[in-house]
Design goal:
Layout: H1 2-16, E1 19-24, E2 38-40, E3 63-64, E4 67-68, H2 69-78, E5 82-85, E6 109-111, E7 117-119, H3 125-135, E8 138-143, H4 150-161, H5 167-174, E9 185-188, H6 201-214, E10 224-231, H7 235-244, E11 252-259, H8 274-301, E12 308-316, H9 335-350, E13 355-361, E14 371-374, E15 377-380, H10 382-390, E16 397-399, E17 401-404, E18 407-410, E19 413-416, E20 418-424, E21 430-436, E22 443-450, E23 457-463, E24 482-483, E25 487-490, E26 493-498, E27 502-508
Parallel strand pairs: 1-22, 2-5, 2-13, 5-8, 8-9, 9-10, 10-11, 11-12, 12-13
Antiparallel strand pairs: 1-17, 3-4, 6-7, 14-15, 16-20, 18-19, 20-21, 21-27, 22-26, 23-24, 23-27, 25-26
Helix pairs in contact: 4-5, 6-7, 7-8, 8-9, 9-10
């Protein structure tokens, strides 16, 4: 009798440990804003200079008005929707008038935050707007609150957005731009709890109110004002801000979270153990708890869901590559980062009711970059390919998913092995994103599609033998997407064999 009981207990545990996903294709309600797939470019290391911008006099690297053509081509294919600039910590030391007018007359400053290098301001407002227009991306300007003034930011808005006659619009025309750019997204300070001024939330709330009051809109564009948000799970910051800022003065509130093991010993980007990998994924997957916590507070003060949550800095952060400037934050990008990106984007997709923007840090040559450059060469990182594969979700309707996952266990600690999100686009195609963070075993998954009929399925996969694998300038295509055939479609049920260390996107119609 005891053996029978044990058998059925084992059977029960086994059955309940299977990977099962239910997708309710007829219950989609919220749009996955394409700006969730946004990016971040700071005057930091080789992100702007020797990254995006090589200068108009460069005769070796093909460029358009100094902006690298190969980077623009790659990011257009990835469909980058919005780009945040000029920081980061740099934003609160940046005075925008230093970066306009003839380059020979622009003053130089020292970038005290990142490497102590001299900044010659050759890349300023006009160059950034040119970059955004070449990319087909919306600009998101992070304004200077820490060392700036209300007047300074208000004049920046007038310079970029006003079409009539005014001192700032006339100055814009003098500098060669007749029509305004109509910049919609404005960040009012950056990390004001830290490098943006070490402010208390009560103090910043009052400062924010003043800045937001005096930022002029116009008939062409309604400003989307984003408050400097919390560090990770500092829910008190969000509560104080929303308690003290009238909803008519705020359109979005930020939050920053990096998947860091230990700020004093972040570890190598490429030479890491399974234990270190697991800890990185633990930190990455904390994003769901962080997002939910801030959403709960926002729902309390904004039950009509008018204020957006903008995760305007996120990603992996490791020690810099050996031999590089510690202040430049240059790191390689492995399959670990691809899994981190895929799982995080699934979280953002699933919480798109409130999450309307996110900005991966940073686009080129810094932190979890999608592109790395070396003189005239570029490589596309595993993270790039995840963002490119996932762009099928842009502005599609999120489909609710219910995931039951087996565990990925290391040293007695466990995480869900499988991550998933799904959407339906305007043509009726359903896309399903799947991530297997387990680096040791494949996982079989049963997906039950409810509320729809499908007859065809195709897929793409990003995977590699080891989680430490990465693309190099010597082997730039070691990791890239391939066709995925590991599924069987039977009516409205999918049987999937998801390899270890993999990201898969399926298309059903």
């Amino acid at each position: 009798m005891q053996r029978v009981i044990i058998f059925f207990l084992i059977l029960f545990v086994s059955l309940n440990a299977q990977n099962k996903i239910v997708i309710n294709a007829d219950l989609g309600k919220y749009k996955i804003d394409k700006n969730i797939y946004g990016h971040f470019s700071e005057h930091l290391g080789r992100c702007i200079y020797d990254g995006f911008y090589v200068g108009e006099t460069n005769k070796i690297i093909p460029n358009t008005r100094g902006i690298r053509n190969d980077i623009v081509k790659a990011l257009r294919k990835m469909k980058v929707p919005v780009l945040r600039w000029p920081g980061g910590c740099f934003a609160d030391t940046y005075h925008w008038k230093d970066g306009i007018g003839p380059r020979s007359e622009r003053p130089t400053i020292v970038n005290t935050w990142w490497g102590g290098v001299t900044e010659d301001n050759s890349f300023g407002t006009h160059e950034f707007m040119d970059l955004c227009e070449q990319l087909g991306a919306e600009p998101y300007i992070s304004g200077n609150v820490g060392s700036g003034t209300v007047r300074e930011m208000a004049e920046w808005v007038q310079y970029t957005n006003f079409d009539g006659r005014s001192p700032m619009s006339d100055l814009r025309r003098k500098n060669g731009r007749e029509k305004p750019w109509n910049v919609k997204y404005w960040g009012i300070g950056n990390e004001t709890w830290g490098c943006g001024g070490h402010m208390r939330p009560e103090y910043y709330a009052d400062i924010y109110r003043a800045f937001a009051t005096y930022l002029p809109g116009n008939s062409n564009v309604k400003l989307f004002r984003i408050a400097s948000g919390a560090a990770g799970d500092d829910y008190n910051w969000t509560e104080i801000l929303l308690k003290n800022i009238p909803l008519n003065l705020i359109e979005g509130i930020g939050v920053h979270h990096y998947a860091v093991i230990d700020w004093n010993a972040k570890g190598s980007a490429t030479d890491f153990t399974e234990e270190q990998y697991f800890k990185t994924m633990q930190q990455a997957l904390r994003m769901e708890k962080i997002v939910k916590g801030h959403i709960n507070i926002m729902d309390k003060y904004d039950p009509q869901n008018r204020v957006a949550l903008a995760v305007d800095e996120w990603g992996g952060w490791y020690d810099v590559e050996p031999g590089t400037n510690p202040g430049f934050l240059y790191q390689q990008n492995t399959m670990r980062d691809a899994l981190l990106a895929g799982a995080t984007l699934n979280i953002f997709n699933n919480y798109c009711r409130r999450v309307k923007m996110a900005n991966l840090a940073q686009t080129v040559n810094v932190l979890q970059a999608v592109i790395l450059t070396k003189e005239e060469k570029i490589i596309l990182t595993p993270t790039y390919y995840v963002m490119e594969m996932y762009n099928v979700h842009h502005d599609a309707t999120m489909l609710p998913v219910d995931v039951t996952s087996e565990k990925y266990t290391v040293d007695g600690k466990a995480l869900d092995a499988i991550s998933c999100s799904a959407s339906k686009d305007e043509n009726g195609k359903i896309h399903i994103s799947l991530v297997n963070i387990d680096i040791n075993k494949k996982h079989n998954i049963e997906i039950d599609l409810r509320g729809t009929e499908v007859s065809n399925c195709t897929g793409r996969i990003l995977t590699s033998e080891k989680v430490q694998d990465h693309n190099t300038f010597e082997n730039p295509e070691k990791i890239k997407p391939a066709a995925f055939k590991g599924f069987k479609l039977n009516g409205n049920k999918l049987q999937i064999e998801l390899p270890a260390t993999s990201v898969v996107v399926l298309e059903l119609e």
